[in-house]
């Protein structure tokens, strides 16, 4: 009887080491895109919630997507001031099937546009975002807001900004690669960073 062939696992790329950059969390949403930016010492440099409204004609929705990324790009470029940008955005939220077409389009628009910049970027699953904030992969938005406050004393009533805060922390962990115990990084955070989808 022939032995089964061994299966070689696909190579999962890890994030490159980037020191002295800025580390960006993006929670993309049509109604309120959260944006949070840290420096390499985990100092909060910028936070924003960028909101848009539905348009009247089909082309308005195209312009809505374009405007959201442009506003993120402008803010990040301004804060970066020549430093290397490392961004982590939330991956597709499969729990919202009625919005998947729009959210999928927005998510791919952000990926395509980031691929045209020199930025490093990755995506993080919703479960890993929640795990980083609360220690649990399944919880409500309000628990993430509370978890962010308890862990980092960052207060926001907007769940998109709270999510972006966590994503920015994940970007810092993945790309600056601080050791466990420094900059408030825990061993579990390193495991979350290893589960990102790294594009660059």
Overall structural class, as computed from helix and strand content, comes to: alpha/beta
Strand order of the largest sheet: 3-2-1-4-5-6
Question: What pattern of helices and strands is seen along the backbone?
Answer: EEEHEHEHHHHE
| Main sheet overview | 6 strands, mixed
Question: Briefly, what is this?
Answer:
The chain is of the alpha/beta class and 200 residues long.
What does this structure look like?
By secondary structure, the chain is α/β, with parallel strands linked by helices. It has one domain (22-198): Ribonuclease H-like superfamily/Ribonuclease H (Nucleotidyltransferase, domain 5, 2-Layer Sandwich). Helix content is 42%, strand content 16%. A six-stranded mixed sheet has the order 3-2-1-4-5-6. Strand 1 and strand 2 (33-38) form a beta hairpin. Helix 3 (126-134) crosses helix 5 and helix 4 (141-152) crosses helix 5. The longest helix is centred in the middle third of the chain and has 23 residues, at 58-80. The chain is globular and about 50 Å long.
